[in-house]
Amino acid sequence: MKEVFDELPQGLHLVDLPQPMAGFTRFISSWFFVDPQGRRILVDPGPANTIPMLLEKLSSLTDGLDLILLTHIHLDHAGGVAELCDAYGNAKVLAHEKGQRHLANPEKLWKASLDTLGDTAATYGEPAPLAPEKLLAYDDKELSGVAVMETPGHAPHHLCFTVRLAGERLFFAGEAAGMRLPTESGAMHLRPTAPGKFDAAAALQSLDKIAAALQGGEILCYAHWGIERDAKAQIAAAKEQVGYWLDTVSGMEGQTPARIADYLLLNDRFMAGYSELPEDIRLRERLAIENSIEGFLRYLQDSRGK
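Request: output the structure for the sequence above.
Response:
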C-alpha cells in the first residue's frame, strides 16, 4: 500500500491506532496539529482501548492539548475522549449537540454499540463519562478559526471541520466522504460507510453542502484513512458513489449482501484498488462492504415505511 505520511502538510500528524484484530491497521487514526493561534488540536481520539497508545505517540509531539474535535461519537472515533481529557486536563471538547448527552452519559451508546458491533465494540472498550463542563458550544470563542459544519448521513451527530495550517486549508471529513485507502498504483479504494442508522438522503445533502462550502485547494483529511489534496474531486467521487450504491442496492434488493458486494467490486470504479490491498485488510474491507450494503438496505426499507 502507498505510504502517506511523507505527503502530509508540515505540522499535520496522522497518529495511526491499529486495533488488536486481524486487518484493523490503517483503519483508525487521530489527527494532531498546532494551529496558527498556537492551539494544540486533536481530531478524533479513537476508542478507549488505544488511548495508552495515543498518549505514547502524542508524548513526542506535544505536552498538552487545548481542543479535541469529534467528527462524531461512535466508539472508534470518540470512545476514548474521557480518558484523553483525564490525561490532558486543560483540553476542551467539541461534539455535535445531539451527541453531547451521550458523551456525558454513555450507557445507551455503549449498549447500542454492543448490540451492533458485538465483539468489535468489546475490543474498542467501554467509554467513560465525559465531564459536561469539558464540552464547548459551536459559537464558543475558544473555537475561533475552526469552521464547524453539521453533516448528517453516516450519523445524525456528524460534524466536519475546516481549519488553517501553514498556509493550507484542512477539511476534516470524518466519515461524511466515506472510507478511502491509498494503493501503490494510485487506483482508488473508496467505499461508503453506512451503519445501521445510515440516512442516504441526508448523506447526499451533506455532500452537496460540503461541495458548496469548499473554496478549492482544501486538503481532505479522512477519519479512515489518510489525505487527498483535491477535496472537491473527492467529495464529488463520494457523492457519485453513494448514488451508484443506492441505485445498485435498490435494484438488487432481493439478493444477499454478499452477492451485491460481488457485483459492486466488479463494477464500482471507485473500488478498483481493492485487489491491491493486503490480504488481511482486503478481508476486513469485504466484511465492511457487506455491512455497508446492509445499511443501504435498511435505509431503503425504512424509507418505504415513512
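DSSP finds ten helices and 13 strands in the chain.
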